[in-house]
Amino acid sequence: MKENRINKMRKNFIVDENKTSRNKEKLSLGIERYVAISEALNIWKRAFIGMSIMTISFACLSTFLFINKSETKSYLIKVNNNGELIGTEKLSNQITNIGNKEIEYFMKKFIKDSRTITLDRKVFDKTIREASYFLNKETQSKLSSILSNENVYSFFEIGKTREVEILSFVKIPESENTYQIRWREKEYEKNGDLSKRKNLNAIVKTKRFSPNSEQIIFNPFGIVIVDFNMQVEN
């Protein structure tokens, strides 16, 4: 192998036939040294490439293991009406520290999300999906029936909107996990004129459950509405 390389290298050098054999021997020795250096450089080159590949592979493996071992922790931040921090709690599958204020917040949010209609149908569909995290199968079916009977999707076709204002939220005495919510709805035509105004109320019964990793994002307290009855006030 080495002799073949030496013979090939000879073609790159012009040898004067009048040179002595001693000079030719020196030339051959120089070529041999050149080939040896070239082979050594190739060995180091292959070693460098191999080490680079190993280093990159190790870095990728370390990153993968770090990502998989990393744990994302979510916390619930509680504030008062002035926006001042009053407490924090780590989100888990079940938060035990829950009072009427937390239930009131999420029930009001449910009413506003499920009753407000903007000009953007995608926003409405998104809020209805988020509201479904507070419902079981029976109450989801009831909400779908209400939306269908009201033909809410016609609002988007003609450019109407509906605004919701929460009026009150009270716990019904001697009824476990049962609340009454009152709110006012205003409907506006495409040109902005007020076309309808009405007050409504709903009796809502709730219970607790352990939310999964998807549900806990929208419903961290695990509050589910198991029954509700909505009616228009006179």
Automatic annotation (TrEMBL):
It is a single-pass membrane protein. GO terms for cellular component: membrane. It holds the Pfam family VirB8. It comes from the Bacteria. Its main location: membrane. InterPro entries: NTF2-like_dom_sf, TrbF, VirB8. SUPFAM superfamilies: NTF2-like. It is found in: Membrane. Keywords: Membrane, Transmembrane, Transmembrane helix. The chain crosses the membrane at residues 47-67. Residues 38-231 form the Bacterial virulence protein VirB8 domain. This is Type IV secretory pathway TrbF protein-like protein. It comes from Streptobacillus moniliformis (strain ATCC 14647 / DSM 12112 / NCTC 10651 / 9901). The lineage of its organism: Bacteria, Fusobacteriati, Fusobacteriota, Fusobacteriia, Fusobacteriales.
